[in-house]
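[09:14] KT: can someone run the structure on this one? pasting the chain below
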Amino acid sequence: MELDVDGVAERVSTGALPSWDDVEHLVQDAFERNRGVTAGTVADYIPALAVADPALFGVSVAEVNGAVHSAGDVGHAFSIQSISKAFVYALVCEELGHELALERVGVNNTGLAFNSVMAIELNDGHPMNPMVNAGALATTALVPGATADERWAFIQDGLSRFAGRRLGLDTGVYESETATNQRNQAIARLLESYGRITADPVEVVDVYTRQCSLLVTARDLAVMGATLADGGVNPVTGERVVSQHVCRDTLAVMAASGLYEQSGEWLFEIGIPGKSGVAGGLVAIAPGKVGIGTFSPPLDAAGNSVRGQRATAFLSRSLGLNVFASGVHGRPDAQLHDTSTEGQER
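[09:31] RB: done, structure tokens below
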């Protein structure tokens, strides 16, 4: 995970952000520092995504007070893809409750690729967590509704309330994914064989494919993330989307598994929950503070946006978002006695 943090003074998390002007400047700085990065490859296993312009790049930060700061291509629409997993999980948790979601889907990292079949077999058919494809399909299967269309309407409405505007479907991406989603169909059939989903697996995959094909922007992702940061209330519209405890559960799962097998490294370097998508989107959340949304199509080997990770790392450090960062209370650092080398041989 190559990050743009050289020379960045790290702020300690205090519960408050810098001034509006400082946040505005730092968002622009995150964009300028990374716009020239050329590392990564645009996803091509879904044909409709392969045509994305690799130069596109946008960074947006939405504060819990409703302020939004943006730089770059933040109005460019792209398919939400796997980022939808986190928000559909939140909607399902709101409907079914903490215990049932925990039992049916799970919360533990698989340590394997997002579309791993082996992870299912190694865990006796348990999907493990909602951020990998098996868990996401199990989550979508739990969406309320008597028909596939009703379940789809529930998802589209819910994710639109997170974004604060009506989200539409990218039919080209939906059709392209439908023609190439045989692996997800196999995963759904395998989950059915273990009794982990009881709905028609073909319909489950279709609804899941539609949810991944919803169009969002980097600004939308920032607002969606800020809704989780603000205890479930959209800070732009003022509408409650989910409850506070659902936000807590969702952010915990995102922290553990949102960046797939790189989740530990992400948390070690950046220190806030996040979720990536194969179209180049990335959302990160600092509870009680902000949601960060970025868009840049080139991905690393794990399927995470290269520029998005770098920009988010810069913002985490410069805005004091890392939930693990701390300072000494009430004593200047210069007055502290450094014992880090005591007892070592010289």
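[09:33] KT: thanks! Residues 48 and 319 are 36 Å apart (CA to CA).
[09:34] RB: yep, looked fine to me
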